[in-house]
Records
---
Amino acid sequence: MSAIEARFGAREGKLTGTVEMIHGAGGRASAELIRTLFRRHLDNPLLAQGNDQAAFAVDAGRMVMSTDAHVIAPLFFPGGDIGSLAVHGTINDVAMAGARPLYLSAAFVLEEGFPLADLDSIVASMAAASRAAGVPIVTGDTKVVEKGKGDGVFITTTGIGVVPEGVEISGDRARPGDVVLLSGSIGDHGIAVLSKRESLTFETEILSDSAALHTLVADMVAAVPGIRVLRDPTRGGLGATLNEIAQQSRVGFRLDEAAIPIKPDVSAACELLGLDPLYIANEGKLIAIAPPDKAQLLLAAMRAHPLARDAAIIGEAVADPHAFVQMRTRFGGNRMVDWLAGDPLPRIC
Amino acid sequence: MKFVDEFRDQALAMGLAAAIAREANPARRYSIMEFCGGHTHAIFRYGVQDLMPENVGFVHGPGCPVCVLPIGRIDNALELAEQHGVILCSYGDMLRVPASKRRSLLKAKAEGADVRMVYSVDDALRIARDNPGREVVFFAIGFETTTPPTAVALRTAKAEGLRNFSVFCNHVLTPAALNHLLTAAALDVDAFIGPSHVSSVIGSRPYEYFTETFHRPVVIAGFEPLDVMQAALMAIRQLNDGRAEVENQYIRVVTRDGNLKARAIVDEVFERRESFEWRGLGAVPDSALKIRDAYAAFDAEKRFSIVTRSAPDAKSCECAEILRGAKKPVDCKLFGKGCTPDSPVGSCMVSSEGACAAYWTYGRFRERAASEAA
């Protein structure tokens, strides 16, 4: 038994101690934590070199880099946890440029007193998500803050990827007449997380949709290299994401509410809580904008992938100097889909 | 059948729209006030106005609890959170409403006050049980709908002997406000749509006095867009027939006498205030509730010796006129300029039930289109 295991204690292979300030001090305890916990789960040749950085060769071409901080509460939720979310979130941000993600880094801010068994589960979940996606975590960092100065664990991941030749996807490329596609039902993640909030528990079968979307993106880009915009509607949901794109591209959008997929349980929970599903976060869905003559081809490619079986065409881009997002309601009237004001659901990703 | 989409059915909506278009007399205008912000929200969120003929218009009423609370009472809440160091619990929208000097509970929270957003008064009770060493105050707002849960919470606190829990009571009453609009504010509308959730508690009877005295139809309606359209049609038929009656569109819940058990509990815990200040309406007699002496130990106003001082609305803010139905949100100079949901000046821009927020969030493309056409 190593010194560190003696201090933590271990039961049935699970660490039973808690994070201490000494784990962030850079001494032997830090090294032990990295060896016994992080490196054990995230094992790969680049990480195993034990350097402060990972060195690797890449093919020539356009590269993509993205970073994302994860501060979700609760840390474990139906369908995932902060670990899998931190992997999926950054893979998706890289993939939304049409890129193939290559490597991830991960930085942990741990709060003194956080159970090591929970950290172990989180890192194991990150490792599983990274392995399933084929995108290894090749470098990382750990810091510890005093009790009360954090909320268990915060994880920041950074990812890099390469864009296939001929693909140019960006939020400013939507043009009037383009078609808006959505890969599946909205609001699952936000409602799943909300259902486990301490102050707000309610019964639902809804699981977070947290998933890595890069293989879906690869299939879509292969079918329609001329996709103009891809974006995952995470925080702020579909509503906020389309407003961002409208501003960047200086176009308006007209949506058809009846075409937007939403699960009955999500719809019911939103009714109950007075929330609009258009603003609820997703972690495994994407919006695609493509020229109208390619829309059906793209829709077919999406529906052929397991993560986008319910993909749908939900609207179109229009010329509009105000860049308003408008929606024909299921009821038959019209409304705006504005930016979200305030924050109905803090810390959901 | 989930009872969600059924009340938003487009085919039924089109049928009602056709009936309204057929029956509305083109020689006159129909001005219908939806008293409650919940109706305002439904009208904008589903685009109900788009299905109405040009001569049928909605006037938005003051039935938004966040909107009508005067600044002085929000100043009191800030005082509780900041000077008395309590855990102050309230509903989400309340946290963003500007108080004096554009302060808000959200700003106080950012500066370290212990302000917590809750979904129900039960959460506040739970927080009190979990924090026996702290004073926990529930900032109670709302019309007759939210009053029974507050009454039950007070009874529970008393039964449990929960010594660290109290309620800052700001519950207000719908019929008194409606009465005031038609007398003191001389409101010029033809008919009213009354809120069904209020009548599920108080029944439809309190409006009978009203139709007799003021000869305006009142239709009590549910909050789904089809409910609103059906209620509009019922009001139009009454006006065409020269009738002024209390009609109940929401027969799936509302009865003439309401929920007798809820009313009894409310009556046990609360009594009427002689007068209460409403934003927009000023001092309105018999329009709010206070906690009875039997529950004085749980009354935050008594426990912390709260004194409310009247504070003026922000300069140029037209919330008062808008809450009286005398102006539309777009008539306000600040609308969309100094005042947006992200940075509200007046309370009507804060809550999703506020007329300004509903206009801005769901409907402003109409104003832009109209101004460009002109």
---
Amino acid sequence: MRKVFVLGLDSAPPKTLYERYGVDIPVLGSLIDDSRRWLMRTCHPPITIPAWLVMFTGKTPGELGIYGFRHRKPGDVGHTYIINSNFIKHQTLWDTISRAGGRVGIFGVPPTYPPRPVRGFMITDFMTPGPENQYAFPPWLKHELESRFGPLIFDVKFRRHDKERVRDELFQMTRQHLKIIEYLVKRKAWDLFIYVEIGIDRIHHAFWKYFDVSHPRYEENKELSRVIPDYYKLIDEGFKRIRKALPKDTIIVVASDHGVKSMAGAFAVNEWLIKEGYLKLKEKPKKPGTDLTREMIDWDSTIAWGWGGYYSRIFINLKGREPKGIVGKEEFDDVITQLSNDLRRVKGDNGALWRNIVLRPEEIYPEVRGDPPDLMAYFDDLSWRAAGTVGWDTPFLPENDRGPDDAVHDWHGVFTVYDPEGTVSRGMGGEMPIERIADYLRELMLSKS
Amino acid sequence: MPEGGKKGGRSRYTTVSIPVTLYNRIKKLIEGTGFANVSQFVTYVLREVVVEYERAREAEEPFTEEEKEKIIEKLRRLGYI
């Protein structure tokens, strides 16, 4: 069995890792240059959960029954449950390797909380409620790590107006992770080691507009424009130490779950549904940015409502499924077709042509499990994120309705494979669908021994 | 593992195989401790491990209401909602 170390950089785009736009990463860069490099094509939806799980199971979000972080049970307006590792019903790459007699080390792969027993060790992901919870397998690993590195930092708290603090906390978190990985790589037995760093996604979301000169609200700032380059440097230096600790014949994989690009704005999808007559509220909320709730909706006149996020999930007020459904089963397909066409035709506020993508889960997945939305919509090819809140005077919000407002997700991430023994040739490999990666890595580990 | 006494026709114990060398290492490790035999020690350790995980694994949602609220708020701030 070949040893594989996966450096998972959440949301790292080809622009930084392949084109080296604005970053100086001598160690990682030279490894990538000596690797086989693919443009990793992510899944629908292009979001951390489910994307990493798609990568490590080879199953589509439909087969996994995971369409994002949160889901609703039929009949609910808002979310009912949050995805966690108990929803993983398919064999992961680490299960496969364990069953083949290998040892695995898993750190930060979403969603792995609550932890499961593995042949090796596991530290859970940023969805772990806190370091007071059991986040490690075996259980004594938690104490072992905390006695050396302090309480594990899973994520940082986002504040829109205190960027310096967000930066400092992100650097502190990632420094701790890199030290832990170096320790685990040296001290533990493993054949497959997967380390996903979420900090890079947070850095992109919070600081992209100070970094990418093509951002529509690009702002040069002496301090903040350095944050992303400094962060990549931190990763590069940490990786240098990790690489030194890796056994010489280890295959090194650098992968991301999706890419990132500038956010053009937020599209208030429910405001648009109201304007087009699909959704009716009993009265207009007094405060812009109000969450949509069941009580606010005039159900007798509502055909559909939506959720926001990096993509929009649309739900039809279907009779027999929703408590006050008005769309009959026989009308469902026509309503879906009409609404899809209308969503595709949405233009920007200045009449700009948008490339909107509207999909039915049944059309894109071989199987649709769990609680899927009726429609999935991406506005202007993801450049406009969706806002689910209401009370706005226009659907076009120049900035996010809440949260960070600098970056949105993109379809292409990276997937690179470096084999010191040369069995994987270097150079560009074209496009790699995220669903194929689990099989590729399994073969790499088990067939080329 | 101890051979089972029987209650209601169902064995209360079962046998788990472990390598003889590991058995001997455990036997040596527990000499002079409160564990009377290897089975007692193995059962104790496994129970300690299993209890750490089974509650969170059995519930569909392992989060408390408070944790859930915090996670939702975090997802909001991160732009996922």
---
Amino acid sequence: MYDTSDIRKGLKVLLDGNPYTVVEFQFIKPGKGAAFTRTRFKNLLSGAVIERNIRSGEKLEPANVEERTMQYLYKEADDLVFMDDKSFEQVQVRAEMIGEAADLMKDNLPCTVLFFNERPVDVTLPTFVLLEVTASEPGVAGNTAAGNVTKAATVETGGSVQVPLFINIGDMIKIDTRTHEYVERVNKK
Amino acid sequence: MSAIRGRVVARDGDDALVRTARGDVRVKHAGAAQPGDLVELEGAGLPLRRVRKYPRTEYPPRGSEVARLPPSRRGNLAARGRMMAALREFFASREFVEVDTPLVVPAPGLEVHLAAVPAGNGFLITSPEYQMKRLLAGGMERIYQVCKCFRAGEVGHHHQPEFTMLEWYRAWEDLDAIARDTEQLVAHVATAVNGRPQVTVHGKKIAVDGPWLRLTVAEAMYDHAKVAVRGDESVAELTEAVRAAGIDPGTARHWDDVFFTAFVERVEPALAAIDRPVLLADWPAPLAALARRKPGNPAVAERFEAYVGGVELANAFGELTDPLEQRARFEDDLGVRRARGLPQYPIDERFLAALGEGLPPSAGIALGVDRLAMLVLGARTIDEVVAFAAGEI
């Protein structure tokens, strides 16, 4: 069990059966009263943030969570298969857990897989990925006047991204996996 | 032979005084080197070579890690100095005597939630109140003190384990006189520093000229936490009321812990949203500390706390002068300390004896000077307004 003196950013605890991580905390002490730690926790499953005042002397239950770096191997029906680089252990994760970013995943992509009670519950991709554009209409000059400054492009993993008009097939582009947005064109090797 | 580096600390005509790791040396024909410059001494008799030149405004130079103060710290310390001058002027003009009582004492405060720091054969004070009240019992009528107090383990935006306290007392007067002093003092020092009676809390400007909003604890708890508190209910009754208001008291089993769970969750944030300073008065008897019970309503104590923008600035008592009740409260605190495995401090028998010989009816207050400086200077944390915070020593 943890007590309030253990509270620090990133501490993983179990609240009402759900795993949370500490994102912010502050020592408070009302005059003549006990000390409290005003703590903001993020739910590791839903991302929701809650605030609790933990009185000095209260206990917090550690959450059995572990973050492991794993390589994306391949897709199998609705599941994605990841492998631990060190133990070569493989796990299957439902594609819906990753959401929209699943179509930006290339083989061997290193991801962070979060395990809660030994089960994978969340996958975090690298913030940026570099992918080759495999299909896109040529940019049409003059279209910019209508505010139409982007066009759809398909990348090698099959995902579709809005890109500027100057992007051509064969360009390598950098994509933000959190927003699914184009960031920049990367010089070709 | 490697050259010795040093910093020019002064010029004397054509010579320069250079401070090096091996002491100060006088260098002849120092050329254009100015105080603050980092220089290299090539060897005995050789002229010094200026390595880097700094304008005075860039002193200490970039790259110095220990000497360099965080941005705005120098300005804050200068303004805090002006605040302290105004504070002393305030008390002098009201004919208060500034006193200095000992910092090391055999018997620190017994309050359950304060941890004293051991020092020598005794402890560093958590408040100078016992000694100041002995001065009142000894015949002094208006006294104030600015001193360091020490409370182990308290570190946060509004806490430092070593902090500066202001306490003042008036014999033969009541809590209203202390409330007026508080309003006037804060307005006076804010005006001295900022040109107007205004402070800043988390970027929000708050006018501090009086009168401040008066609220009772019962009103604040009812309005903001929907908990009715009288002060004489049992802990079970209070716990039920807190639960009914939708607040989880967790593992709290003591009256004060249940109360503060609701207070911290609902009342403190509400006080922070009020755009005037608040005097929160009539504390429930279980939270009386060293305050006397209110004549006519023994369920509450003659105690107020001053809150400005949600920052708890000061705590005031109509002083408990009855030595028997005071001894009983000390015994209670020691009982709770025993039950919780907390250190047992001795009871200050000289303080109790002084009460027995006659402490006049009095009122007094303890105000956090660092927090006052935070408010006056618009700082967000105590670290910004002290010379060196706990992590910087």
---
Amino acid sequence: MIAEIGHFALVLALGVALIQMVVPMMGAQRHDAAMMAVARPAALMQFALILVAFTALLWAFLTSDFSVSLVAENSHSTKPLIYKISGVWGNHEGSMVLWVAILALYGALVALFGNNLPDALRARVLSVQASVGVAFLLFILLTSNPFLRLDPAPFEGRGLNPLLQDPGLAFHPPFLYAGYVGLSMAFSFACAALIEGRLDASWARWVRPWTLAAWIALTLGIAMGSWWAYYTLGWGGFWFWDPVENASLMPWIIATALLHSAIVVEKRDALKSWTVLLAIFAFSLSLIGTFLVRSGVLTSVHAFAVDPARGVFILGILVIFIGGGLGLYAYRAPALKAGGLFAPISREGALLLNNLLLAAACVAVFIGTLYPLFLDAIGGPKITVGPPFFNLTFVPITLPLLCMVPLGPMLSWKRADVLAAAQRLMAAAGLAFVAGLIVLGFWHKGPWLAPLGMMLAAWLVFGAFSEIAYRLRLFRIPLRESLGKAWHLPRAAWGGALAHAGLGIVLAGIVGMTAWRIEVVTALKTGESTQVGDTVLTLEKVGLREGPNYEATTGIVKVEQDGRFVAYMLPEKRNFPVEKQEKNEAAIRTNFMSDLYVVLGENNGQGAWTIRAYRNYLAPWIWIGGVIMAFGGVISLSDRRYRVGAPLRARKLRLNAQPAE
Amino acid sequence: MMRFLTLLCLLVALALPVRAVEPGEALKDPALEARAREISQELRCLVCQNQSIDDSHAPLARDLRLLVRDRLKAGDSDEQVLDYIVARYGEFVLMKPRFGPDTYLLWLGPGLALAIGIWILFAMYRRNATAPEVPSLSSAEIARLDAIVKDHER
């Protein structure tokens, strides 16, 4: 019964979305306030209905209702609670329901908090947003119904892929989707502005917080996915240039570019046409990512759906929205009047260069990801595009960008003095140089590029500090005044600096991890030891352990440093009888400067176990840096100029102040 | 402390980095083994999803790792080993596709995109630079504008 209610709610949501798509748009074209007013209740209703459907599905998973085919195929009654919940989106149909739920949530948020938007713009935005919802609700109802029943219902479910039974991966998809789908807001705002033919600084101010929210979620989602890969896949890699990873990286790159170019639109009324194009591309890449993952054109752990009908349907959605968006752009963008002029060397110029390099980096990822498919489709040979390609294309494009990150915020708008900006960064450059020398002193045997990489990372971090110091006029005015300034400095400035510093920390982590990692593979009998760097590992014992829904072979590894006992580490091999799969659970011990990473391998039949042990220098920094970047985004999002209704309140204040004049 | 550092540096230099390589697979000659690992990272495990044979635990990857080491022991150059494997398994096995008519677009695409972007920026800049200056307002116009603004504010 509950599953049927969920199904029915989805059908109703489609109906409401259709109304939300058509009526407010017509109202906006005809200046009919009543028709435009339909948008808000419709958006709220659509979200409420999809929430009902999602809850119904969640209920089916929680109660292990195996008469629902999706539950029977992806769940099991002995599965821990958290994986019953995450099982909802750990499959194709459920993940699409999550997709539309988040889409409708964004629409509902605009309806609730979009008081400061002009009525016509809000109506058009919600209408475009609803059209995306219509497409995906149709997709779910026609090709991927999650509420199909099984008759007779089996007694037990088939369980969830053990790789997905992991806390990191349980929450990776919701974040990633919140990011992907959040970019639909930028798309809706762009289309609405194009239809309206008007785009000004206030548009940028409205679109930026949504893009920022999506960017934060995407950053966290990508970081979580990479962290999961690091500790699960058992050899400690963190980024593989896998097509599915690339599918999430591309929207992230373009969203980053969009965040930067929207600043120019907001502050200087320039780059409008380009910003709109970026907004369209950002969501287009999200759709392409959904297509790549969901259609099964890529063979990957992520492709649960290998069904051509679904692939063709999503391809259709892709063509309609990307084609429609770009068509609208071609038709209307020439009407957007170019705004303020600026010299090539200026803040605007630097942001434009940032956009150019980010766009080129995205092209490199795009070509590398899709070229094998393209070549295959035109009848060419099958080829593989692996990490060496990206190291040779993506990295050289992003390096100059990273070098310039601290410089950009130091330049003034319209026309800047590079020398003055460089002078303000002297301290940062000096400190970065010293950091590079120190690294060289410690690690002169490692790859020669590593100290340069660390220098660049330090340059990013110290550059971010310099920017804040410059804005606070630290050390040039009394400290007390500086602190006063710190309080009044816009949070967006703090957020930006924090995000840039976080980027530096990520870079340091990547350099440390790739340049200096120590790897030892050896066969140990119980009682035998091996050495990883300055750490001695002793395999004390190998035993069996009973998990909630698996059986584990656990190694007990004693860790000693300089003859002192440090800890026991427990690497495991888990055997999932229901799913008939095995999963390696690495033991990781971190001190935030490096990770000790131990994996238990096979028994060689003569009493010895393969032990893989790694010392990964600076590895935790990759994810710490990612979280700092996202945190910078959150700080920036709380800036008062984006705070809901702030412009309205300001206007009211001004009106109230008027009579006193 | 210093002794610790020297030891560390020494270990970094000595530690043979190995990933999926099982103990016993590695060659005795460290130089040869290093070359084998280098080559292994350029070869794709055919039955896996985007893993190099160096990363993969699949039996086929292990066979290929041993094959690479056999060829190296037989005295092949790196290039010859790759050619040998490509002749048997096709171009698909290479992580880094070879530069050729089929892959011109792949290898040149990103650079081309960057070049086009730079060119567009230059064109825009030159158009802006040669655009006629916007004539500034005359003092009479400014006065009128002020009057309008004042009027509006009241």
